[in-house]
Inverse folding.
C-alpha cells in the first residue's frame, strides 16, 4: 500500500509538470471563478478575499493580497529561474540565438499596445495598455502539447523563447509602471538580503545544506517583506531571488516547486482574478478596457509576432542559429502568444487598481481574448501538425 501511494503521488507530480494538465486546470479555475462571482455565493467570496490577515506591528494583508502578492511571488521565482537558465545556458544564451524571437517578441508587445491605444486613447481605459502584452507560457505550451503532435521542435523552441522575452517585458512593466512612493531604504535592505540569498545558495553543496536551506527560506521571506513595504510590487522579490540563486540548486528547487505552482498557486490566482461580476450591459456599452484587451490579444499578437518574425528572418538570415520558420508556423506561434492569462490578469489588477469597474472589464477582456486565441491556436496548430505529419508520411513512402 505505501508503494502504491508513493507511485500515485509520483504520477500526480509528473502530471502537474506536464504541459496539458496545468493548462486545463488553469482554464477550469478561471471558469469556476467567473461562475462563482455571478452566483449567490459571489458576495461572500468577495468578502472573504478582503478579510484581513494581520501580525500586529509587522504587516496587515488581505487574503487577496496573500494570493496576488505572496503566492504569486513563488510563481515569479520559478519564471526567473527558467529565465536565468535560458539566458546563460539555454535558447537565449547568445545574440545569434535570440535575435529572431527577440524581434518577434517586440512585435508581440508593440502591435497589441498600438491596437489597444487606438481603441482606448483619450479615455479612462488608456492606462491599461500593458495588459495585452503578456503571453502565458504554461498555457501556450499546453495548447501546443494538445494540438501540436508532429510539429518540429524548432517551433516549440521559438515559442518558448518568445514567451520568456514576453515575461521579461511583463516583469519590467510591473517593476517600473506600477511602483509608487518607493522607500529607497527598504528597497536597499531587500537588495542586501538578495545578495545574502545568492551567497548562501552557493554553499548548498556543503554538508550543512539542510541548515543553509532553512536560513535561505528565512532570508527569502525577509526579502519579500522588505520589497513589499518598499512600494515595489512584491512579486519582484521572487524575480530577484530567482535570478540571484546559483543555477544548479535553483533548477532543483524549480523542479520541486513546479507541481505546487501549477497545481495550486496558478489555479488559485486564476480563480480569484476571475471573480468578476459580468456587467448587465449591451456590448456597445462595454468600455475600451474590455474591447482593447479582447481584440489586442488575439489580433495584435498574431499580427505582431508573425509580421515581425517574418521580418527578423529576412534581416537576420545570416546570423540565425536555426533555419527560418515558415510563415504559417509564425501565424500559429502568434495565436499561441495571444493567450495572455496569468500575467495579463495581474497587469489588469495593477493597471486599474483604483477603478473596480475598469479592472473587471479588463479581466473579462483577458478571458475573452485568451479564449479566442486558444480557439484560433487550436485550429492553426492542428493544421500545421497535420501538414508536418503528411510530410513525414510522404518521406517514409
Amino acid at each position: 500500500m505505501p508503494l502504491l501511494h508513493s507511485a500515485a503521488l509520483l504520477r500526480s507530480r509528473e502530471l502537474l509538470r506536464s504541459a496539458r494538465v496545468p493548462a486545463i486546470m488553469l482554464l477550469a479555475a478561471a471558469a469556476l471563478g467567473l461562475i462563482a462571482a455571478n452566483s449567490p455565493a459571489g458576495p461572500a467570496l468577495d468578502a472573504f478575499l478582503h478579510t484581513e490577515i494581520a501580525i500586529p506591528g509587522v504587516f496587515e494583508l488581505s487574503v487577496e493580497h496573500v494570493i496576488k502578492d505572496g503566492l504569486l511571488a513563488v510563481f515569479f521565482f520559478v519564471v526567473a529561474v527558467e529565465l536565468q537558465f535560458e539566458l546563460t545556458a539555454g535558447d537565449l544564451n547568445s545574440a545569434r540565438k535570440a535575435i529572431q524571437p527577440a524581434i518577434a517578441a517586440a512585435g508581440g508587445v508593440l502591435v497589441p499596445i498600438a491596437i489597444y491605444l487606438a481603441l482606448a486613447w483619450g479615455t479612462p481605459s488608456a492606462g491599461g495598455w500593458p495588459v495585452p502584452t503578456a503571453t502565458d507560457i504554461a498555457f501556450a505550451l499546453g495548447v501546443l502539447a494538445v494540438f501540436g503532435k508532429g510539429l518540429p521542435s524548432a517551433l516549440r523552441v521559438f515559442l518558448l523563447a518568445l514567451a520568456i522575452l514576453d515575461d521579461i517585458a511583463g516583469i519590467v512593466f510591473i517593476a517600473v509602471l506600477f511602483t509608487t512612493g518607493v522607500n529607497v531604504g527598504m528597497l536597499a535592505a531587500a537588495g542586501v538580503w538578495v545578495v545574502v540569498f545568492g551567497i548562501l545558495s552557493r554553499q548548498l553543496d556543503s554538508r550543512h545544506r539542510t541548515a543553509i536551506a532553512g536560513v535561505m527560506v528565512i532570508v527569502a521571506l525577509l526579502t519579500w517583506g522588505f520589497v513589499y513595504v518598499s512600494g515595489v510590487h512584491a512579486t519582484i522579490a521572487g524575480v530577484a531571488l530567482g535570478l540571484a540563486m546559483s543555477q544548479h540548486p535553483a533548477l532543483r528547487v524549480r523542479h520541486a516547486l513546479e507541481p505546487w505552482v501549477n497545481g495550486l498557486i496558478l489555479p488559485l490566482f486564476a480563480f480569484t482574478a476571475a471573480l468578476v461580476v459580468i456587467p448587465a450591459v449591451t456590448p456597445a456599452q462595454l468600455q475600451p478596457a474590455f474591447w482593447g484587451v479582447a481584440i489586442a490579444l488575439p489580433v495584435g499578437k498574431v499580427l505582431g509576432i508573425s509580421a515581425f518574425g517574418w521580418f527578423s528572418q529576412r534581416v537576420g538570415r545570416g546570423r540565425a542559429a536555426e533555419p527560418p520558420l515558415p510563415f504559417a508556423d509564425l501565424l500559429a506561434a502568434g495565436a499561441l502568444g495571444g493567450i495572455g492569462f496569468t500575467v495579463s490578469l495581474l497587469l489588469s489588477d495593477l493597471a486599474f487598481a483604483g477603478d473596480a469597474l475598469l479592472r473587471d472589464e479588463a479581466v473579462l477582456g483577458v478571458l475573452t481574448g485568451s479564449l479566442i486565441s486558444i480557439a484560433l491556436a487550436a485550429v492553426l496548430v492542428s493544421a500545421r501538425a497535420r501538414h508536418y505529419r503528411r510530410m513525414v508520411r510522404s518521406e517514409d513512402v
About this structure: The beta strands are 52-55, 59-62. The chain has a mean pLDDT of 85.
